[in-house]
Design goal:
Layout: E1 5-11, E2 15-20, E3 29-33, E4 37-40, H1 42-46, H2 62-70, E5 91-92, E6 99-100, H3 103-117, H4 129-140, H5 149-161, H6 165-173, H7 180-191, H8 195-210, H9 221-234, E7 236-240, H10 242-251, H11 257-278, E8 284-289, E9 297-298, E10 304-307, E11 315-319, E12 328-331, H12 336-339, H13 343-354, H14 361-365, H15 375-381, H16 386-394
Parallel strand pairs: 9-12
Antiparallel strand pairs: 1-2, 2-12, 3-11, 4-8, 5-6, 7-8, 10-11
Length: 396
């Protein structure tokens, strides 16, 4: 049926936007997109959130997933046949033992970037340049995670391995880029107060691990900062979970009323217990760069939303309203709670995290509202941290 949406240049201030090429009905999938590159977050992997090293598909069965999050190995899930995980298909890299969900993912990773990044027998050697880079990153960027140095490493490795290097360089260059002082602000946001010294340390480790003369600009202080900001601005959070897949499958079962009520009560209690034990960290989490999705501008009243229903890095953009041909398709960078706050509070979050002031219809309608937050908002002001932004980004 041809693409339902296309990217168009709006203005130098706004950059690109995504527009409907035909009318789209509420609930329709506008597109499904595969990232040009993706990577699991480093703390997430360290804490045994086991995911395919390529597509981030959760590798634990739903039952194992629930047992780990609960800290309770005796838990038994009903309807185990509703779990979609196929362990018989899992494969490891024979050299470094990272795990993939399938032969296809192992092959895709090998062809795109893994030859350069495979640690082989040095996997546990703390002095290996790539391990030093990852360790430094973990020490700078604690959970909740919003980005990963390995996304940048995979970009470099992809170009190193590519026959057509210019094609990849061009692909990466179409992501929204920022001015030098905006880049600095993003780096600051990701690294905190000590960012200048930390950025320089990362650059030296990044250079030691990955230097390539084709990309020499990316290894200069300016080029590295640009690359860092590109990932910070365009990286889309990805969340996968075999447990949530199992829950969706159970929701779809046709059960007698009493059994349905029992199952729903079991699932509700399970999530309450998990929250006590593991808090908000339920998913395998990472981030990726998506060419089309990165063109979606923000609105406080979005007409579309992103999700990961396939339990891997395939991003689905779904219409929340009917959208007419020619209309701009917008998503929200804020979660539901943040969207309910005052215009002043919303824009504070957007300026700090995404470096723009929103002028969506809701913000324009509230333009004359006082620029102060109400008392209860004042109290909540300190809590709008990245964790909430992340929730919105990684909902599955």
């Amino acid at each position: 049926a041809g693409a339902a949406a296309e990217a168009r240049f709006i203005s130098s201030a706004k950059g690109k936007g995504l527009f409907a090429t035909r009318s789209i009905r509420k609930g329709e999938t506008v597109f499904v997109e595969r990232p040009v590159v993706a990577s699991q977050f480093l703390w997430n992997a360290l804490y045994n959130y086991r995911a395919c090293d390529h597509c981030l598909r959760a590798l634990e069965t739903a039952e194992e997933n629930a047992q780990r999050l609960l800290g309770k190995s005796s838990l038994v899930l009903p309807h185990p046949e509703q779990c979609s995980i196929r362990k018989d298909l899992h494969q490891q890299c024979p050299r470094c033992q990272v795990t993939y969900c399938s032969a296809e993912c192992r092959q895709a990773a090998l062809e795109q970037y893994h030859q350069v990044l495979c640690l082989g027998p040095s996997r546990d050697d703390p002095t290996h340049p790539l391990n030093k880079l990852q360790e430094a990153w973990r020490n700078m960027h604690y959970p909740p995670e919003t980005s990963s140095i390995m996304l940048m490493a995979r970009m470099v490795a992809t170009i190193k391995q590519a026959k057509d290097k210019d094609w990849w360089i061009k692909t990466f260059s179409q992501f929204c880029s920022k001015t030098a002082n905006e880049e600095e602000e993003i780096a600051h946001k990701l690294l905190g107060d000590k960012f200048k010294g930390q950025l320089e340390l990362l650059r030296l480790l990044f250079t030691e691990a990955l230097y390539d003369e084709h990309l020499s600009r990316w290894f200069t202080p300016e080029g590295f900062r640009s690359l860092f900001a590109l990932v910070g601005t365009n990286g889309q959070g990805i969340g996968t979970s075999s447990l949530s897949q199992w829950v969706h499958a159970c929701d779809a079962l046709d059960l007698p009323m009493l059994q349905r009520e029992e199952l729903d009560a079991f699932i509700d209690q399970l999530y309450k217990d998990i929250e006590k034990e593991s808090g908000e960290f339920l998913n395998c989490e990472g981030s990726g760069l998506y060419v089309l999705q990165s063109c979606c501008n923000h609105s406080c009243i979005p007409n579309a939303e992103t999700s990961f229903p396939d339990n891997n890095f395939l991003l689905h953009l779904t219409a929340l309203e009917d959208i007419e041909a020619g209309e701009e398709i917008c998503i929200s960078y804020l979660d539901c709670c943040q969207r309910e706050r005052s215009r002043h509070s919303r824009n504070k979050i957007l300026r700090e995290n995404y470096l723009f002031t929103c002028s969506c219809p809701k913000c324009l309608a509230q333009a004359d509202d006082p620029d102060v937050t109400s008392d209860e908002e004042e109290e909540g002001e300190g809590e709008t941290d990245d964790a909430e932004l992340e929730d919105e980004m990684t909902d599955v």
